[in-house]
Amino acid sequence: MEEKMKEEKIKEETEIFTKENCTFTKSGKYNYKLYFDIENKNIYITKLISFSLIKLIYDLNPDIYDNLAFENINENECIVIVLLKHFFEDIGLPQRYCFIHIEKIVEGSKIIFKSYTIKSEKPNIIPEFAELLDIDNLNCVCDVVTPHKIYFSFNINFNSGLIIPLFVEKMLGVIIHKIFKRLKQFIEMLHV
User: Fold this and answer.
1) What are 113's strand-pairing partners?
2) Which one, of 52, 32, 49, lies nearest residue 40 by Cα?
3) CATH number of the domain that 7 lies in?
4) What phi and psi values does residue 80 have, to the nearest 5 degrees?
5) What's the Cα-to-Cα distance from 76 to each of 32, 55, 114, 116, rounded to whole Å?
6) Distance of alpha carbon 70 from its chain centroid, rounded?
7) What is the Cβ-side half-sphere exposure of residue 108, based on CA atoms within 13 angstroms?
8) Domain count within the chain
9) Which of 52, 69, 54 shows the shortest CA–CA distance to 179?
10) Direct distance between the N- and C-terminal alpha carbons of the chain, in angstroms, rounded to an integer
11) Which of 44-53, 113-122, 167-176, 179-188 has the lowest average pLDDT?
12) pTM, 2 dp
């Protein structure tokens, strides 16, 4: 049943790559999706699905960003500011930053993190030359298969004004895969 659910979602999209049980796809011009699962029979993974998991993602990937600010507003909301590494400086693309509001929602066996870009101001920890990575929304659905296994699906919708060259698209997939591969390996190696 779980494999069939994955296949149905993915067949409507163009696959950019599949690697190590992680699939990165494109649907439309500005929409990207990432699918993977994490399983560890030694721990209750469901207890990890909180804002601390988001913080862990950043802690495991310091080579992806230059600066990070993470602020919990309450149990169900947080603000994240990330100055990404200047990956494409050599080809003249600007350094990017994210300024996002994240909300946690629980719906039955799903834990959903809904994120959107805050555009009203530029955080003072961000250099003047950095440009906003305008994400219309970034949603992470954590579908609890068992207390020891979670199926993750990330849906990233960039603003239609953002132009993403094809070579950057592949690189984006490689970076996103690297980020979540580290998370998956970390959680799957945990023992209680």
Assistant:
1) 104, 140
2) 49
3) 3.30.530.20
4) -130, 135
5) 25, 14, 10, 14
6) 15
7) 3
8) 1
9) 54
10) 29
11) 167-176
12) 0.83
